[in-house]
Amino acid sequence: MSLRGVAAAVGVGELAPQRYTGNATILDLLSDVANEAMADAGIERSQIDGLVVHPIGGLPGFVPATVAEFLGLKPTFAELVDLGGATGAGMIWRAAAAIQAGMCTTCLCLTGTRRRQRKPRSDGPKAAAPTTPRSITPKRDQSPAAEFDMPYGMLGANVGYAMIATRYTHEFGLTDTQRAKVAVDQRKNANANPTAIFHDQPLSIEDVLASEVICEPLHMLEIVMPSAGAAAVLVTAADRVADAQQPPAWLLGAGESVTHSSFAQAPGLDTTGIGIAARSAFEQAGVQPADIGLASLYDCYTIMVLLTLEEAGFCPRGEAGAFVEAHDLTFAGDFPLNSHGGQLSFGQPGMAGGMSHVTEAIRQIQGRGGERQVAGLELAYAHGNGGIIAEQTGLVFGAQR
Amino acid sequence: MSVRLIPPSSELTQPYWDAARREELVVQRCEECGQRPFPPRAHCPECGSSALDWRKVSGRGTVYSFTISHRPPHPVFTDQCPMAIAVVELEEGPRMISNIVGCDPVEVAVGMAVQVGFEPIDDSDVSLPVFTPG
Predict the structure, then answer these.
(1) In which domain, by residue range, is A26 found?
(2) Which of A34, A262, A338, B65 has the fewest CB atoms within 10 Å, counting from its CB?
């Protein structure tokens, strides 16, 4: 059993990431992109019988039903995906699997987050230390590891990815300049993407290296900027593809891996779930990494791109630093990578950030990349990564079934 | 004395913190298969046995990886930054998050030998395992 050629993505809707979204609710944003995806594909609301969403802050439960009612859908397949940054990619193969199982024929995959301006929770020299030193008990239950992580400042993702960079550098060697090259080439792509949050701002290696070191060795400009937005993808069955007005981006292969939750329990850098997910996706598609014309790789941090390049098999182990130096990673280069700018330059609107790697792969395969179109593209690989290299999903898209 | 974020413990994890107050580092050990799961579990993640016993470990380990955080991950850490946050691999196998203290953070390196110590936390009965070079 394989998902190869079972279904195709035929429509996308995506908001340009913004820093803040004012008073719009998450349902407003999801509704915007859902309707945009329907219009894009030329598919009627009544044809949608599958819905995949993710947990939404503020909605304690019943998320698929809440979203379905808001959008006027009555799906026969309703699913919740909770894989952090791998959620968007994880939705796509689940949609195809549901189609294969006969549970639906056209499935709407929705991601997004709203963001209101507020006083920063922490960060920066302006944040004052508590005036009365005391231990603090969080209000909510945390993961089982929280008790053993939080007292040490193991909070958020910066610390974990910085430790990945430290370990990688120790094992294989990696320079600040090599990491910065990823951010800089992706920015060139964003400069050709009008919807990217950093579209108008050029970036140099020197800029990256001159930015504040947040967690050694990672600089501010190697770290994704949280933003708000939403993204939708319509996946439809092979025999429905002709109903859509856009060319299909065929799902040819998918792979997934969940290896841990707390970073201290992560496998070694040579046995991550990245490789497990990617190898499954390539095997199912019957293609090799070398066949891929666009790598759309989750990039919460520069180090994540480097790790994924070699774990997914685009370059030999330990050679990611030399690989990015040797290749032009722009959409017009010899190894097109994150042609939308990646989340580092496009923006990270919550789960829609991970989905942006999927929407970009789809648009590029459909030949709708505009100014940043990768010439002659036949195969694209999209990778999602959740937590601190905890959840991985890989997808291979092709122009031909 | 220092300031930290201290989440509440549970019935499962209390023996770890009780031992820390005695300045002992303990980790569960599976009586069936010898696995040392961490963080604590109800059942051995390897063989499923519920015969998990708390055993004192040497307190010696090495730095598997680390970062020096220049920004406080939370406001309570403001006065402690830059701080060395690390994954320590215990001699007995398990890896845990900790801080490397008792040295200039710039001296911390991957592979460095470290030894557990215990830091009393302000306004609490918690004694927090941390690691120092040596």
Answers:
(1) 7-116+225-398
(2) A262
Can you give the pLDDT at residue A308?
A: 98
Tell me: the pLDDT tens digits for A247-295?
999 999 999 999 999 999 999 988 999 999 999 999 999 999 999 999 9
Q: Are strands A50-53 and A106-113 parallel, antiparallel or unpaired?
A: parallel
In angstroms, the CA A338 to CA A340 distance is 5
For residue B37, being part of any structural domain is answered with yes
ipTM: 0.97
Q: E strand or H helix at B127, and its extent? A: strand B127-133
| Cβ neighbours of B6 in A, within 8 Å | 135-137, 150-151
Cβ-based contacts of A147 with chain B (< 8 Å) = 7-10, 13, 39
To probe the interface with A, which of B67, B69, B118 has the most A CB atoms within 10 Å? B67
Does residue B107 belong to any structural domain of this protein?
Answer: yes
Question: Is pLDDT at A126 greater than 50 in this prediction?
Answer: no
Q: How many domains does chain A have?
A: 1
Q: Are residues B93 and B41 in the same domain?
A: no
Cβ of A135 within 8 Å of Cβ of B122? The answer is yes
Per-residue pLDDT band for A133 (boundaries 50, 70, 90) equals: very low
Closest CB to B72 among A122, A137, A147: A122
Strand residue runs (E) in A42-88:
50-53, 77-80
